[in-house]
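Hi everyone, sorry if this is the wrong subforum. Our group has a chain we'd like a structural model of before ordering constructs, and none of us has done structure prediction before. Sequence below.
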Amino acid sequence: MPEALICPKCAAEVQYRDAGPSLTCPRCHAPLQPEHASSASGTKEMDPELRELLAEVHKTPGGGGPPVSKIQAIKDYRQATGAGLAEAKRAVESAGPFQVGSPRPAASGGGLRWVAVLAIVGLIAGVVGAIFALVQRNGPTINPPTNIAPTAVVPNLSIPQSLLPSATPQFATMTMEFGSQGVGPGHFDDARSIAVDNRGHIYVGEYSNGRVQVFDTTGKYLSEFSLGPNSYLQNLIADRNGTVYAVSSSHILRFTGTTGAAVPEMDSDAGTAAPKEYNDACIGAMMYAISSSGGGEAEIVRLDTNSGKILGSFNTKKLVGESLDLFRIVSLATGEIYALDREKGVFKFAMDGRYINRFGGGKTAGVSPLDLPPSQLFSPLNIAADGQGRIYVSDAGSCIKVYDKDGNYIDKFGGHEVAFGIAIDDDDNIYACMRNRHTVRKFVISKR
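Answer:
Right subforum, don't worry. Here is the predicted structure as tokens:
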């Protein structure tokens, strides 16, 4: 009975009776030595569970039957899968052991079952090999290179809008704007001052001609009056009785707001001292005004709103320790006074004139407002206070900045517009006179 071996070079099966020194492979003509070649009838150790499965598959449908030869197994595998000889040999050898015997017909039950097992083994081996090759080609995925950002996995979730984070709102948002350029009713020409009385009437004053227009809470034009010829309007103030105070040409004039009827002006004569020249005024616990008379040093003057008489004054240089050029003033109902120096910032005083602190910095030459910290003022134009004691300063390039009563910066709003005059009503709504746009804007506080 001939023996068989597998050529180590081309994997061809070679049958022989006597393996002499002249034994060669009939396909590739490689010299063969049985001890160097793979025996077609050789066996090797295998997993016991696989051995039992193969033993069961080797049986014919009727039970028993001779074992499948290695050669027959290779032929069956190639017929079933279309694989090459070398691939079939490797798959069959991985499943072994086999004995040399008569080839079993391909259509027999045991052969078909065997082919099925080999096909499954081959499929599993192919899948594992493909995965291994893919990993080797693409590299590991759990440790990507540090210079390549891993692709984010975004879950397909539907999140209710109410649960999504919203953009941080500004301190206040604009809810109304009215006016346009011109000289007729409802139009503005160089409007820089604004005031609001306790009934919501809005007073808008023009600097160069002394005209004051009156509007209702919706911005509807109601009436107007004039300060008189050659009057330059520096600022407007309104008290809770509807009286409008106009700081004009160093005087404080008074009018009945809705009719424009003139009322005797506030006193500027302090007796033996030189007459006061007023730059601005405000109404809180009482009326305070800024005067630059008296040797050129800034003074804060107290006035009686009923009689218009001067009640007293204090020199700010003596209180602060340096000369101030005060431009605007506002006070709280609790008596604190805030005076604005355009170059040095805001100075806070107690009702009795005691100096408390300063904040906001002031204008810095040669520096852009974008280069300054948010709390610092660039070129302040006006100042106001609301019912919570917050201080509002209109600042070129930042519109309106907000501070608490101690001078701590809170926020800003209005974009990069320029607001000349600002006023606040009893509901803490803010009105800004946008001189360059010839309009008035109303802002409602978003953050309480």
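For your construct planning: The first strand starts at residue 3 and ends at 6. The chain has two domains: 41-138, 172-445.
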